[in-house]
Specification:
Strand order of the largest sheet: 3-2-1-4-5
Structural class: alpha/beta
CATH class: Alpha Beta
Helix content: 10-25%
Order of helices and strands: EEEHEEH
Strand content: 25-35%
Largest sheet: 5 strands, mixed
CATH architecture: 2-Layer Sandwich
CATH superfamily: ATPase, nucleotide binding domain
Length: 123
């Protein structure tokens, strides 16, 4: 089964989400609320994308101790992905600056998140 790569990066004002089918094909960009209204929201979003695309999902949650959700609700998602048979694998990643470009235009800057996804999940 092919893999969809997803990056999730919460900020003080919103959470950026980017989904990629390959290192050069971004198919989804979104700005969501910083904090989901349910502890199952992240798991449900990732599982829904796996089912929609018919592909396993490898996701990177890009946060550090200074991130608005660094110790909050998004960490609740990690116990939900412990089963090796799951459609979703979630990895905790610390942010790093990047200069990558490309993908869907008109949603603001996602190049840094796309680069983190490529570097972290494309193995």
């Amino acid at each position: 089964m092919d893999t969809t790569w997803i990056g999730i990066a919460p900020t003080a004002t919103h959470t950026r989400v980017v989904a990629m089918r390959s290192p050069v094909e971004t198919f989804l960009k979104a700005h969501l609320q910083t904090d989901p209204s349910s502890p199952r929201a992240l798991a449900t979003l990732l599982e829904a994308l796996a089912l929609w695309e018919g592909r396993r999902v490898r996701a990177a949650l890009v946060v550090d101790d200074r991130s608005p959700c660094g110790g909050g609700l998004l960490r609740e998602a990690f116990p939900m992905f412990g089963d090796s048979g799951s459609l979703v694998e979630l990895t905790w990643v610390e942010p790093r600056a990047s200069r990558a470009r490309g993908g869907i235009r008109g949603m603001g800057r996602f190049a840094d998140l796309e680069q983190i996804v490529r570097r972290t999940l494309a193995r």
